[in-house]
């Protein structure tokens, strides 16, 4: 790895740590700005004009969200008599943070930007770039009704818009929007639930993106190259099913936790969550069958199986061991 990439990766990590550990809103905002300036060079590539275009779009969107965030913070601090539960500036602050993570209905930029990135940059955008804004949402999510609307909108948008996609990166982008809804629901109930959900989501995302990067595939019709490799085929299917929350895989654990917590208040919202999850799971199953059961002679087969995939799959299957943690989390 080149020196400048190591440098910007370190800045990226430490800027997120600044936001997470700060007790001042302006320190958090400063950490977000350093984070944005560090990730832009990692997204850009002189070899790929689409990566540079995505980096520029990301810069513009994040800058606009940061301006709204900063103005909201200034107005909140100037208005000493504001009602913290219903103040319009608090809504604009939350809207800016939802825009930064790509939650619906502020998701318009997310799929288009990730379509131009390589797999390493996509992994950063799907996982690490969510941490700092999510922590800020934990401190600012006092408008429960607005947060609940964003939760349901993100779940519905991610599941519906993923139905007609053939690009793997766009599928993962809409899947991420769906999972953002689940993560915000975790924040709504318990911060520990969010940490558990995010770690499991990041584990599955790393596994999938490592697989796609090794195969050098970006569209589902390119996945025919793994038809003759049973281990890769099994890994692909199992990780997508785990991402969709199919029991008894590890991806079912955080959804189980959220549903169990939400059922203590009402049955209506958990029922909607389960129905939306079934739509997302249908998308994964349909694409798995369409991509891995129709043979073609256009693509070369991929016979090599990295050992690390086997280890990740063993972790994915260890849900039965992790299931008792749900009682400790409560």
Automatic annotation (TrEMBL):
Superkingdom to which the source organism belongs: Eukaryota
Keywords tagged on the record: Electron transport, Membrane, Mitochondrion, Mitochondrion inner membrane, NAD, Respiratory chain, Translocase, Transmembrane, Transmembrane helix, Transport, Ubiquinone
CC per GO annotation: mitochondrial inner membrane
Catalyzed chemical reaction(s): a ubiquinone + NADH + 5 H(+)(in) = a ubiquinol + NAD(+) + 4 H(+)(out)
GO molecular function terms attached to this record: NADH dehydrogenase (ubiquinone) activity
Family label: Belongs to the complex I subunit 2 family.
Record-given protein name: NADH-ubiquinone oxidoreductase chain 2
Lineage of the organism: Eukaryota, Metazoa, Ecdysozoa, Arthropoda, Hexapoda
Gene coding for it: nad2
